[in-house]
Design goal:
The chain is mainly alpha-helical. The protein has 5 helices and 2 strands; from the N terminus they run ααααββα. The chain folds into 2 domains: 7-55; 82-169, no CATH class. Helix 3 crosses helix 4 (46-55).
């Protein structure tokens, strides 16, 4: 179906008929059906009729017995929020010294593993830039139920910071 067949160029006669039917309270569906009988070359839809009526700024119609609700700004109920108390300086009970283990230098890849040669028995840590020719994967034996070897597993899963603020509720 070409555009000329599907779209209706509204002429003065059609606009006059639309205004008359609209004032008489005929529904958009019924007006579209009437247009399709009078002008079978156009495939008039209800939405086309309603759109044209809107663009012509025809009076808004109401269904009998149904009152249009008044549009009011919804008042939001304000619920009291739990207020955060200020940061509390907790007394230091004992001094804790955290010793971080330094990671040994990264192990060199065992062999040049590609995506196709990876298995469940190889570390899947990428080494290098994926766009380069020397890109490969680590390939060492992974930890239990982890995709990475011991070294890369520790590198991937950093512990949480210990100096985070403490909020009291």
């Amino acid at each position: 179906m070409s555009k000329s067949e599907s779209s209706c160029p509204w002429n003065a006669e059609q606009i006059k008929l639309l205004k008359e039917e609209w004032v008489n309270g005929v529904s958009g569906r019924e007006i579209a059906d009437k247009f399709n009988l009078l002008y079978p070359q156009y495939k008039m839809k209800r939405s086309a009729v309603l759109g044209k009526a809107h663009r012509l700024k025809l009076a808004e119609r109401r269904i009998q017995g149904v009152k249009k609700p008044k549009v009011q700004q919804a008042k939001l109920k304000s619920f009291p929020r739990k207020k955060r108390k200020k940061l509390v300086n907790l007394p230091v009970v004992a001094s804790i010294t955290i010793v971080r283990k330094t990671l040994a230098p990264a192990p060199l890849p065992n062999r040049q593993l590609t995506v196709r040669t990876l298995t469940n028995e190889t570390c899947k840590w990428p080494v290098g830039n994926p766009g380069e020719d020397d890109f490969c994967f680590c390939g060492h034996k992974p930890r239990d139920r982890s995709p990475y070897c011991e070294y890369h597993s520790r590198q991937a899963h950093q512990p949480q910071k210990t100096n985070r603020p403490v909020y009291v509720y």
